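Q: what sequence does this backbone want?
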């Protein structure tokens, strides 16, 4: 099925199929970044492992996902976004099966890394398909629907994971991906138009992808393993390798003819500011969900299902608010929602900080923070995505999507490794004592500050293009 780029109308049968396929595909990848959080205590008990292994269960996935997202985006631009999307789904599904049958925590961590590599191929393709397939006049609404529904899959993760852990096994957290991926592949092959960038490089940037993976891997390894192993020997070597690889990545990307991360894309102020906001807000979101869900179960006595249900308002807010927020951003510009949305997320985290203590009651101590947190995020996600995709040329939709998704996943990766370290609970074997609770509160304070920085970044760096152009024209006419 071949179709000219930008010809699909929102609200048509084809438009609905495209959104369904891309939401299902990217949704299971986003789902896996949060659904596993609720399963962590069960995994810990099953394999009798420590807190650092729980961090690796989350970060192994985020590491390969973040490192190879840009490669996945460029592969889609080159070989066809639908084709790479479907191939990524296939790899992700196979890795999910391996996770579900893992005989040890080491095997599980390795399978999670493979899962992240598959997700790196399908995630940027899903948003690039939306951006390149829909008519320009409908693109904002389509992105809003994609953001909201994909965000719901992220937010529903704790609830679904809790239900599966309590009623079946933590292994079904991964095995549930198999039928969902099969449905997404079938819909994509039948209904999604193929699009590509005819000017894209004929070979992917393998050197860039390798150095990015080494840089992230070395730094994250040091942050997670340093408190456990000490800061000599292997950990020091990891820091050195990570830093050298980071320098090498910058050199490679400046010298290769077709880099996976063309630095000139950051000359666009809107694109740079939106990605800076993505970095801070998604770090706060991912770090908070990772730690709070563990705290609810281990220190406050919640079941896995109860811990998941605690964030049900987040699912509802993303489902209800994101399409309207995307439409609002298309009409008035993204600056207003991207400024006040992250501030709301930060206030919600501060409220949660005081409530997630042993003896705290959900309705009075936790729910108010969750509600404010959810409202803020509901007004942030779709406008942020609209701002990013609106700042890049249509032919670079894949790389633009890849950069933004890479920033979001790297933010999550670093948050899961860094927030426990900053809070003094990295390497902890006791995740139910008072020291862990104090660490959680410190981490949520840091996460809230990150959100406030994100709101300030949007206020300073984001502009509403149509309104700014109108103002400039009026000043020119009156001048």
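A:
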């Amino acid at each position: 099925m071949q179709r000219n780029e930008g010809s699909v109308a929102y609200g048509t049968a084809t438009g609905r199929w495209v959104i369904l396929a891309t939401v299902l595909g990217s949704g299971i990848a986003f789902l896996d970044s949060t659904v596993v959080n609720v399963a962590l205590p069960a995994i810990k008990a099953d394999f009798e492992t420590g807190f650092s292994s729980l961090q690796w269960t989350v970060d192994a996935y985020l590491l390969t996902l973040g490192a190879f997202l840009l490669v996945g985006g460029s592969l889609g631009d080159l070989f066809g976004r639908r084709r790479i999307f479907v191939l990524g789904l296939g790899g992700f599904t196979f890795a999910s099966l391996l996770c579900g049958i893992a005989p040890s925590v080491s095997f599980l961590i390795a399978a999670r890394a493979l899962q992240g590599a598959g997700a790196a191929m399908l995630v940027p393709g899903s948003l690039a398909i939306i951006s390149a397939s829909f008519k320009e006049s409908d693109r904002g609404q389509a992105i809003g629907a994609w953001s909201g529904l994909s965000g719901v899959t992220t937010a529903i993760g704790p609830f679904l994971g809790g239900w599966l852990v309590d009623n079946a096994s933590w292994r079904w957290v991964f095995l549930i991906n198999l039928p969902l991926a099969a449905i997404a592949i079938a819909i994509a092959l039948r209904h999604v138009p193929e699009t590509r960038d005819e000017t894209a490089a004929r070979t992917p940037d393998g050197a860039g992808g390798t150095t990015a993976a080494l840089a992230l891997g070395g730094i994250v390894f040091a942050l997670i393993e340093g408190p456990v192993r000490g800061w000599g020997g292997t950990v020091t070597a990891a820091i050195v390798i990570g830093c050298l690889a980071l320098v090498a990545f910058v050199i490679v990307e400046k010298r290769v003819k077709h880099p996976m991360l063309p630095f000139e894309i950051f000359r666009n102020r809107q694109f740079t500011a939106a990605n800076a906001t993505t970095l801070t807000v998604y770090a706060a979101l991912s770090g908070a969900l990772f730690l709070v869900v563990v705290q609810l179960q281990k220190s406050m006595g919640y079941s896995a299902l109860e811990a998941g249900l605690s964030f049900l308002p987040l699912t509802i807010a993303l489902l209800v608010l994101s399409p309207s927020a995307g439409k609002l951003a298309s009409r008035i510009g993204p600056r207003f929602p991207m400024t006040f949305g992250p501030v709301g997320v930060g206030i919600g985290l501060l409220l949660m900080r005081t409530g997630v203590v042993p003896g705290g009651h959900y309705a009075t101590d936790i729910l108010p923070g969750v509600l404010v947190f959810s409202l803020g995020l509901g007004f942030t996600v779709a406008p942020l995505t609209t701002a990013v995709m609106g700042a890049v040329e249509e032919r670079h939709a894949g790389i633009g999507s890849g950069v933004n998704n890479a920033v979001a996943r790297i933010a999550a990766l670093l948050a899961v490794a860094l927030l426990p370290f900053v809070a003094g609970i990295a390497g902890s074997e006791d995740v139910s004592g008072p020291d862990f609770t104090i660490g959680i509160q410190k981490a949520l304070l840091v996460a809230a500050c990150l959100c406030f920085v994100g709101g300030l970044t949007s206020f300073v760096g984001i502009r509403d293009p149509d309104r700014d152009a109108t103002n400039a024209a009026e000043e020119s006419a009156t001048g």
